[in-house]
Amino acid sequence: KCSRLILGGTPQTVSQFQEFLPKALQAKVVGTLSLDILASEVEVRDRTLDLIQEVDRAREAQLVEQMVTTAAKGGPAVLGLADTLMALQEQRVHILLVAEGYTQAGYRCRQCAYVGADYTPSCPICGGPMEEVEDAVDTAIRRAIDLGVEVEVVHENPALEQAGHIGALLRY
To answer: pTM above the 0.90 mark?
Structure first.
């Protein structure tokens, strides 16, 4: 399955080729590269990887901005570890956003596997005993993947760091 396309060639060739693509494929074009017909494989690879990274960073920034703005307006978004873990527990998360390298200890119920950011002697869900987990963020990512949630690891985004390094856009 193709989710993104990058077209490369001379500007005229790229433009003409793009016009012949079906609308469904045109919508998947995320960028174009002006490349000489004699460009080496290494040049094509390097420039393509640079463009992919640029596209990914722009998407990350857009998602973080959407999440922070939505949360500020009281909409379907949460910021910070505690609220994000609760939204995952309630299966309301649509997209999980996590700052690259972010780790934080937390607590997990031995009975129902509920994970929380703050210590409580008993689980708020089932009343079972809680135990410390070294990395609640990793646990959150694994839970999100198990639930089929899109997980976006965000690279060097001050707005996400200021919002608690983790958050989510919610389904409702």
So the answer is: no
Sheet of strand 115-116, all strands in order from the earlier edge strand to the far edge:
115-116, 106-109, 130-133
Considering the domain architecture, whether residues 53 and 70 belong to the same structural domain is answered as: no
| Integer Cα distance of 109 and 121 in angstroms | 10
Tokens representing residue 139 in the block: 């646990």
CA distances from 88 to 23, 36, 80, 136, 140 (A): 36, 48, 12, 12, 7
Amino acid identity for residue 98 in this structure: V
- Do 140 and 110 reside in the same domain of the chain? yes
| 133 burial type by CB count under 10 A (0-12 exposed, 13-18 middle, 19+ buried) | middle
Residue-wise pLDDT for 78-118, tens only, equals 999 999 999 999 999 999 999 999 999 999 999 998 999 99
> Distance between CA 139 and CA 36 in Å, rounded?
47
Same domain assignment for residues 46 and 102: no
* Type of residue at 148: G
Domain count, the chain: 2
